[in-house]
Amino acid sequence: MKDTRGYRIIQAWLEEKKFAPFTFQEATWAAIAKGESGLVNAPTGYGKTFSVFLGALIRFINENPDNYKTRKKNGLRLLWISPLRALAKDIGRAMEEVISELGMNWSVGIRNGDTTPAERQRQKTHMPEVLIITPESLHLLLAQKGYPSTLSNLQILAVDEWHELIGSKRGVQVELAVSRLAALHPSICVFGISATIGNLEQAKEVLLSPLKKSGVTISANLDKKMEVLSIFPDEIEKYPWAGHLGIKLAAKTLPVIENSTTTLLFINTRGMSERWYQVLLNEAPDLAGAIALHHGSIDQDLRIWVEEALHTGLLKVVVCTSSLDLGVDFRPVETVIQVGSPKGVARFLQRAGRSGHQPGATSRIYFLPTHSLELVEAAALKEAMDRNVIESRDPMLLCYDVLLQFMCTLAISEGFDQAVLFNEVRTTYCFRDLTQDDWIQLLSFLTTGGKALQQYDDYKKVELIDGVYRITSRRMAMRHRMHIGTIVSDVMMKVRFISGGYIGVIEEGFIARLEPGDSFILAGRNLELVMVKEMTALVRKSNSPKAIVPSWEGGRMPLSANLGRMLREQFDEAGSGSSNKDEIIALRPLFDLQSELSHVPKANELLIEQIETKDGFHLFVYPFEGRLVHEAMAAILAYRISRIMPITFSFAMNDYGFELLSDQPIPVDDSNVYELFSPENLFQDIQRSVNSTEMARRKFREIATIGGLIFQGYPGEQKKTRHLQSSASLLFNVFREYDPDNLLIRQAYQQVFDQQMEEVRLRDMLQRIQQSNIVIRFPERLTPFCFPIKVDSMRENLSSEKLEDRIKKMQLQLSK
Amino acid sequence: MQAPLSFSVSGEQLWLSPHKAVYWESAGTLIVSDLHFGKTGHFRKAGIAVPQHVFRNDLQRLFDLVSFFRPHTILIVGDFFHSAENREADLFARWRNDHDGIRIRLVMGNHDIFSEDWYTINNIEVFKNIYSQGPFSFVHEWLPEMENGTETYFFSGHIHPGVRLSGMGRQSLRLPCFYFGRSAAILPAFSEFTGLAILEPDEGSRVFVIAEKKVLSLQ
């Protein structure tokens, strides 16, 4: 490769700029020159863009050594999938710079939700050589008539930030797009670009599956120094309460902010980020103008402004959520503060990597606990980083909803032959186990609409015309194009000042709970609700001291399995007094109280506490397996106990453990506890516990929306489509009752088992518990461990009592 | 068919059926609300594949109620059909034809947008806003100001009422209900393809929830 014209030209250009290529970049160029596919593993900020992009240029120069500078209108050569719209502009700018310095005539286009129709039209006739696109917009491109000719010159497909996409339905969208492109261009080069995750090899396999090639893995192997510093409260509270300590420690972040050029303060929820913004401003009024807020509900223009200001070093501190997890580097950022648990090692590393971008610089991250027990997580994170234990991102399997959407996408552009498409779809990792039966069901769902009363039916969507499946109705096609995508957010309401001026968006459910005159906080402003009109909440400025901070759903990640294991080890060391970590030593008083009242579990022990309070009889269990596994385990345990006697529970959980609460004593003791935690009949017990239905119902909203069952209306046509509105929960009831084998219903349950309950992890946990000692204690009062669960709870319930009996016990609650 | 529950209002004997209907004994009238017939068909026409058997089942329940109570009148307090005419209306029309001995009265609801001809052909008496008989008046949506200066007791629908029950151990349940207020009753939506609006019962009201095919009195 090094003796090719292209390499020499690129090498000369780099030398002129006094850059030396990294080994991984050269390896990528060589692979692309040979027409290979693969995965580049490199962190942000180390020229990963140039690995694939310069490779594409080298290849082009080699193919056109004499006229590479003058050749114009070469058609689309490189398709660059990027998950974030905000990234596209920066990447495009960097690419254009190289092209112009090389004196070439390539153009770089961007295609995403912000691209104007005029620009789209231009791209249709003259595709740029490089197109930067989101997975959704790529599917929209596949929904255009004549897309194969638009893409006829395509050689290279780059998938940026593949680690972010792989575990999601957007990743499935990418897989399906790769399968289509590989069918159009059997010799296409596909390169994923990914940060380090636990399953890199699998990530490559998933991406390249349709190519039927194993591909190369090219790793940057750049060592980055990292330092974790905990911020300690002056006094360790023995009864930790989530969310309450963090704000109290806000003042302690000021010296850190003071001493850094720019600081990113990561908060786990949008609601808390609003609070932090207010509190920091109150504590340090001189930060005004140098502090900004960045989260998913803030107006996009404002977010872009914040990002630009970060680049130019205008801001001293930005309070942000996972909205800043992705994306380009902000070089001025020197320090990162993580407030509350990051829930996983990979995420923590990624956030830490946000600081100290100069090669060789140490990334410094401060950990600020929101309750004192969280300090144990800091200790666990340090340990995990030392031992290089990083989470995997598991690819999603058999997402029928995404497939249905994809089938409709192809049906509105070129139509499809079912046998050809079936084989093509089965080349993807996601659908490699798709059966012929399921495929037929999918086809019939689209063509005949499943269960129907033949002659009394008007169903129409996809039609079979001369062996080709097509959607012919323009209206249907338009609606489908508007619905392409897999990100389903809650119904959002715009928030505007009554005098004009847009502030951001907020969940409809939150506004619905407010009365006009109530105050709430959004985008760092104190606002009073005046009225709701159509889908807009009109507000005015408020001075009310009692403004409500909205608590947003979503974004609440469970603790990862890796971090859970590390935590158990930390507790073990804490209990035996053998730890030399600052965090564990600081928590001594809390651990002393816990041992006095109950017990500090060792790594091979499961602690169960039974406590009676005026609320009823509590059973607390501490497996440290994350909220989702606990939710499932609570349901299964409740179900298993309820088979012993008629009893009703409600349950609560956090990342450390869960609670069952009943109005009668809970029959769990040494004689039956191992049986109650047995992995036997797990699957059946999951299905029988009422909870899986409730969880599936919640999952169904996303599935029904992606699968095209939720009608979102045409723009500006809200009134006319009112008769087509129904809630996902109602659809779920109807399908479950009248078409229980429907693939989308099955998918909802499967997703619950795989993701919500993390069935594999649940089984692993039960097996671990069987091998460990179960310690049951009967503390006289609440313990430090149970307190955060009791206070910070999300409740579910399960009952084996007859409904009639329950209602007799209940009182009518006069509340919404 | 599950047994109805006995209840009386203004001295009239009523039977509350868990199939979401009220039988008014002395008038031989079955009172139902918010049938939303044709809703599945409306969705399916737009390419949204809701199982049509929901509608068949709703129709079957109406048939079962008629066989059980043998009413001479069915009184619908609005939202009989969900939207514009479609083939599901034809299925109803066939059913109607087989039961032409029963009188059907419809107090129009906001969803009732069929042509007048259709009601005439299918022998359905239509009342624009209100229908009164004996001590009762029937409207689709009851509004508090209707109470002024009248002795009549109202039957209404429209909102698809439900209540949330909660108890010890922070349990909670959402169930459809019959709501009998001081001067008006709100009936549950007959159709299974409808959601619930959670009510806050006033003092002095009676609430009957529908749970597992039974009608249960609260309080």
From TrEMBL, chain A:
Keywords: ATP-binding, DNA damage, DNA repair, DNA-binding, Helicase, Hydrolase, Isomerase, Nucleotide-binding. One of its GO terms (molecular function) is helicase activity. Residues 249-401 form the Helicase C-terminal domain. GO terms for biological process: DNA repair. InterPro entries: ATP-dep_Helicase (IPR052511), DEAD/DEAH_box_helicase_dom (IPR011545), DEXH_lig_assoc (IPR026362), Helicase_ATP-bd (IPR014001), Helicase_C-like (IPR001650), Lhr-like (IPR017170), Lhr-like_DEAD/DEAH_assoc (IPR013701), Lhr_WH_dom (IPR045628). Residues 29-215 form the Helicase ATP-binding domain. Gene3D superfamilies: P-loop containing nucleotide triphosphate hydrolases. Pfam families: DEAD (PF00270), DEAD_assoc (PF08494), Helicase_C (PF00271), WHD_Lhr (PF19306). PANTHER family: ATP-DEPENDENT HELICASE LHR-RELATED-RELATED, LARGE ATP-DEPENDENT HELICASE-RELATED PROTEIN. Belongs to the Lhr helicase family. Lhr-Core subfamily. This is DEAD/DEAH box helicase. It comes from Flavihumibacter solisilvae.
From TrEMBL, chain B:
PANTHER family: BLR1149 PROTEIN. It holds the Pfam family Metallophos. It comes from Flavihumibacter solisilvae. This is Metallophosphoesterase. GO terms for molecular function: hydrolase activity. InterPro entries: Calcineurin-like_PHP, Metallo-depent_PP-like, PdeM-like, Pesterase_MJ0037-like. SUPFAM superfamilies: Metallo-dependent phosphatases (SSF56300). NCBIfam families: P_estr_lig_assc (TIGR04123). Residues 30-144 form the Calcineurin-like phosphoesterase domain.
